[in-house]
Design goal:
By secondary structure, the chain is an all-alpha fold. It has 2 domains: 149 residues, no CATH class; 142 residues, no CATH class. The chain has 12 helices and 2 strands; from the N terminus they run αββααααααααααα. It has a two-stranded antiparallel ribbon. Helix 1 crosses helix 5, helix 3 crosses helix 9 and helix 9 runs antiparallel to helix 10. The longest helix is centred in the middle third of the chain and has 35 residues.
Length: 339
């Protein structure tokens, strides 16, 4: 972490903060100069599915993010000097993520009304974000969009910043996938030296890294539309599971965990229903169409996510049931230290 990831992320953070500052200035400065006119309601069904659950898996990280729970446990925890800093870091990072989500929505709304180039609304998400913010910054200064040098400069800088954002997340995600994959073959009560055979082979860091890279390269050949719904569902499913894990832990150490139940149930219901709808759609393609590689990928991963999630939910319900009966299963020493 401290050799490559930490210094790289530290340097990249300045570019990301500059992007947020530029976007905020553009939003505030363009008030009254950009007219947003979008339909209030267009229907309960969109191109990617019904409004529920599509709405709650499309806005992936702006409200709640399961990926953040993995990063905080496997990356952030290795870089803090004091445990008291974790609340400010974790909560503060989520607030910044929410700000970025709002800025992104505003950028899309601006592009919807102020189309600068042909095909703007069908461009990639980073391109649309950069167009929207660059448009607001340019209009703030009173310049014309068509031949503005400022627009081109801001657009280029924002595209670079978003690319850095994606690259750092990609590297972090590969690392998280590598050690989570290794943990499948390494029980909690054993060390690497205790393993043998296939378990020892797959638990090696280099093996897990190669597997994650191969999977990532395979995903890279798919269209964004084929990836995004699964990404959103998987990310928000992790969020629901993270809420369940924290609720189980609090219950085990004798603390109140009721505040987690409603968001946990909602997130699990939204994500699992989205995955089930994906499976249904892919089965229809298999039975009456010509499925492509992307269809098989979506079906396999959606099915795996549903099965694994159901197993975890069953274990979570059993834990909550034992807690309700007064059968606390947590570490007694830990319970005493947290009272």
């Amino acid at each position: 972490v401290w050799i490559l990831l930490q210094p790289r992320d530290y340097l990249s953070s300045f570019l990301l903060y500059a992007m947020l500052a530029m976007a905020a200035v553009g939003v505030v400065g363009s008030v009254g100069k950009v007219e947003l006119q979008l339909p209030m309601f267009t229907g309960f069904q969109t191109k990617i599915g019904f409004l529920f659950p599509a709405l709650f898996i499309t806005v992936a990280c702006g409200a709640i993010s399961g990926f953040h729970s993995l990063v905080s446990s496997g990356t952030s925890s290795k870089q803090i000097n004091n445990e008291k800093d974790t609340k400010a870091i974790g909560y503060g990072a989520m607030i910044i993520e929410c700000i970025l989500a709002i800025l992104s929505l505003l950028a899309v709304a601006v592009v919807y009304n102020e189309v600068v180039v042909d095909g703007a609304l069908t461009a990639s998400p980073p391109n649309i974000f950069a167009q929207g913010i660059a448009t607001m910054v340019t209009l703030m200064t009173g310049q014309e969009l068509g031949a503005s040098i400022l627009y081109k400069i801001v657009f280029t800088l924002l595209t670079l910043a978003v690319s850095v954002f994606a690259l750092t997340s990609l590297d972090t995600g590969t690392r998280l996938g590598r050690y989570l994959f290794a943990e499948l073959f390494l029980p909690m009560d054993k060390k690497m030296e205790d393993l043998s055979g296939a378990a020892k082979f797959f638990a090696q860091p280099i093996v897990g890294t190669l597997i994650m890279v191969v999977i990532g390269c395979g995903i890279g050949f798919l269209k964004l539309s084929q990836i995004w719904s699964l990404f959103g569902a998987a990310n928000q499913l992790l969020a629901g599971i993270a809420l369940m894990a924290v609720a189980c832990w609090l219950g085990n150490i004798g603390k109140n965990n009721k505040m987690f139940f409603i968001p946990m149930i909602f997130m699990l219901a939204a994500t699992l229903s989205s995955l089930v709808l994906t499976l249904k759609a892919k089965l229809a393609v298999f039975s009456g169409g010509t499925p492509a590689w992307g269809d098989y990928f979506q079906f396999i991963f959606a099915l795996a996510l549903v099965i694994l999630a159901v197993i975890l939910v069953i274990n979570g319900v059993k834990t909550f049931s034992r807690q309700a009966k007064g059968e606390v299963t947590g570490n007694k020493e830990l319970i005493e230290t947290t009272k």
